[in-house]
Design goal:
mainly beta; Jelly Rolls; nine-stranded antiparallel beta sheet; six-stranded antiparallel beta sheet
Length: 711
């Protein structure tokens, strides 16, 4: 391999070489800091970046530490603790005595909140019956039950028993072992009954850790369903302060239903009256940290347009030990970070209805202040669109990237296009009630753009102008593509680039490079055909003064229904950050204006295909021949990585061994097995059934094949 080839593999920039040298020289220091700092190299990399050459023009945008302060006022968050660790954030720890619901400052009374920017899990909800909209307008103020004030309550209104069920969504699963509710301490009903004596005579309570599918089945007041776990069914209650204990578990959804009791004479005659039962406050208690919590920053202006590089963070795994948060190395907790970038201050486009029922774009200010939310009936029917009503909100794909997949590996490149605004979403996850991650700071590399814009589009080589502008291929079939790139410059300070990287998703085969006007075949300086990407170094740089069209022709296989050939450009000789290629009209000879390719099957095959073994018989004798079995297969039509497992069964169908293979994406895969069970012992000679199992959200797909074992 040439030195240039090595440098291209290490790109997007040579700064990684500096980091490796710093890592080696400070390894002893890192060992001494273990348990006192962060995910291993954060301080060392920060030091390396601080001594990077000034010519690199790479700077750091930072939150926490010496950067922007973690702010509760400038963010949306659920159960984030800003006080316990000054300058840092962490999941809230509940002591088991406090009411978890009172920790949430704002609740929506609707199943489908109308708040702009609403995202599932970020706003807690408490609604009556199917959706809450009708009953809120009728005077049922369910949010009074969770305001931390037992003297406030939802005043009784005339209602039938069929609508007397209430759903609480905490937003995230929290540790809980007590659900409670009690009457207001003072006040009277209209009939003179003391509110403190106005108890729910009969009720049932059910809970769910995550979203329960029955929530999708409820459109009317009569559509009541219990949630996954019933914790109480009380036919006759005499307590004003109800405390229901159950085994500790994660709880997100709680459902309370008021049932008829023998004291409810009105029900016997079928009359709808103001029923008995007034709640002053609802409670949920438990000790530990939530299963996951969220922090969503506001949209932050960077003040200038930049390219984005790698993402780092300074975080410490923690465990609550006898009430004291303690750094540990084996916390069952993780942090995932998602980011998105934009070229304006709002990722949404807003619409209103016209006289004809069509939609037109309006400003956010008009959408919020001048337009009305359509009404909704108790059956969930939404008012027909007409002038003065809010219409759709769509995502501004032209100016904003979509949220990145959660980044959990330190120092990974952030998949962001150039932009002057950024937003950060943090997800703290824990699989233990007492383990969590404390985040001190995070930072991302930024640098001036290489060009004002780099546009690209892809098409099949044999069909550059497909019908409908959509490129379609057969899944798993080698196909040749043409990938055109065009740059735009608006300033002399934009240096340009000399290398293109395309994320193909599977191993590519480079065919040729074309440049110039008209396009002519030209020899590249270097080509790298990697496992899932193609890197091509151009013979001359693309700059403002020499801005030529570029076309890459290559072959590759597509294994998913919609594959985006994301690309980036960079300068192999300079300390710079790569710039993302943006989909658009890069060439008049191609009509797709897109980097996306759609995959379809010639016949409806299974998600697991081409299962094959390196040998029909595994002979783990230690002689070097067939001691280890190579198992190859291909995964198709997966939108993203999914859990995959290898299972080994005997002929009775009993599982005798296996391996968790982790998260795997579409494309060819290879794993190895040495003939041993989970305890490390060799299985007895015989015939076994090998199974590759793919675990999707709703179904497990399996592909099995027999194998002989002999020694």
């Amino acid at each position: 391999m040439s030195p240039i080839g090595l440098s291209l593999r290490n790109k997007p920039y040579r700064l990684s070489e500096n980091l490796n040298r710093v890592k080696e020289s400070l390894a002893t220091l890192a060992t001494g800091l273990r348990g006192k700092t962060v995910y291993k190299w954060s301080i060392l990399i920060a030091l390396a970046l601080s001594v990077a050459p000034a010519a690199a023009q790479i700077s750091l945008w930072k939150m926490g530490g010496q950067g922007l302060a973690w702010s509760q006022n400038d963010s949306s968050e659920v159960f984030i603790d800003f006080q316990t660790f000054p300058g840092s954030i962490a999941p809230t720890y509940f002591d088991g005595e406090e009411n978890i619901l009172s920790k949430l400052p704002f609740w929506s009374p609707f199943k489908f909140p109308t708040d702009l920017g609403y995202e599932d899990g970020l706003i807690p909800r408490v609604w009556r019956a199917a959706n809450g909209f009708y009953w809120f307008t009728a005077g049922t103020l369910t949010t009074e039950w969770v305001d931390g004030d037992s003297s406030s309550y939802s005043p009784p209104v005339a209602r039938g028993i069929n609508s007397e069920w209430y759903t609480f969504d905490v937003g995230v699963p929290v540790p809980a072992n007590v659900v409670g509710f009690y009457t207001p301490p003072h006040g009277f009903r209209a009939d003179g009954t003391l509110l403190r004596d106005d108890i729910f005579k009969a009720f049932e309570v059910s809970i769910a850790e995550e979203f329960d599918p029955v929530l999708n089945l409820e459109n009317n007041d009569n559509d009541y369903h219990r949630l996954e776990t019933l914790i109480a069914d009380v036919p006759l209650n005499f307590d004003a302060n109800v405390q229901l204990e159950f085994p500790k578990q994660y709880v997100r959804f709680i459902r309370l239903r008021r049932n008829p009791s023998i004291d409810d004479k009105a029900f016997a005659s079928g009359q709808a009256n103001v029923q008995q039962g007034t709640i002053g406050e609802f409670e949920l208690k438990g000790e530990g940290v939530p299963k996951r919590v969220f922090y969503l920053s506001k949209i932050i202006s960077l003040g200038r347009t930049v390219n984005f590089g790698r993402l780092f963070w300074d975080a410490t795994p923690m465990r609550m030990v006898k009430g004291v948060p303690t750094p540990v190395d084996d916390a069952q907790a993780r942090l995932a970070i998602s980011v998105r970038s934009g070229r304006d201050d709002d990722p949404n486009v807003y619409h209103e209805f016209t006289d004809t029922g069509a939609e037109r774009t309006v400003s956010r200010a008009r959408f919020e202040k001048d337009l009305k939310q359509p009404d909704q009936t108790t059956q969930g029917q939404i008012q027909e669109g007409k002038p003065g009503l809010r219409a759709s909100i769509i995502y501004d794909q032209d100016n904003w990237t979509f949220w990145s997949f959660p980044i959990a590996e330190f120092g990974q490149p952030a998949p962001l296009e150039r932009g002057n605004h950024i937003q950060v979403r943090l997800t703290f996850e824990s699989s233990s009630f007492f383990d969590f991650v404390r985040l001190d700071s995070l930072w991302i590399e930024t640098a001036p753009p290489l060009a004002s814009q780099v546009i690209g589009e892809v098409a099949r080589f044999d069909e550059p102008t497909p019908d409908g502008g959509l490129t379609e291929v057969y899944l798993g079939e080698m196909t040749d593509f043409t990938y055109d790139v065009r740059a735009q410059f608006d300033g002399a300070t934009q240096p340009g680039f000399d290398t293109i990287r395309i994320r193909t998703g599977s191993r590519p085969q480079f065919k040729r490079l074309e440049m110039g006007q008209p396009l002519q075949v030209i020899e590249p300086t270097e080509v790298i055909e990697a496992e899932s990407e193609l890197v091509v170094r151009l013979p001359q740089s693309i700059t403002r003064s020499r801005n030529e069209p570029v076309r890459l022709v290559f072959g590759t296989e597509v294994f998913i229904f919609a594959n985006t050939f994301a690309g980036e450009v960079f300068d192999a000789n300079e300390e710079s950050l790569p710039q993302q290629i943006e989909a658009g009209n890069a060439s008049d000879e191609i009509s797709t204006n897109s980097l996306r390719v759609l995959g379809g099957a010639q016949d409806a095959g299974a998600p697991i295909e081409n299962l094959a073994f390196s040998s029909e018989v595994l002979t783990p004798n230690g002689d070097g021949a067939n001691d280890v079995l190579a198992i190859s297969y291909t995964l198709f039509r997966l939108p993203g990585p999914v859990p995959v497992a290898l299972n080994i069964y005997d002929l009775r169908g009993i599982r005798v061994g296996g391996l968790e293979l982790g998260m795997q994406g579409a494309g060819p895969q290879t794993v190895h097995w040495d003939g041993r069970d989970a305890s490390g012992e060799l299985l007895v000679p015989g015939l076994y059934v090998m199974e590759i199992a793919l675990k999707s959200e709703f179904k497990t797909f399996r592909h099995q094949q027999p194998l002989g074992l002999a020694y």
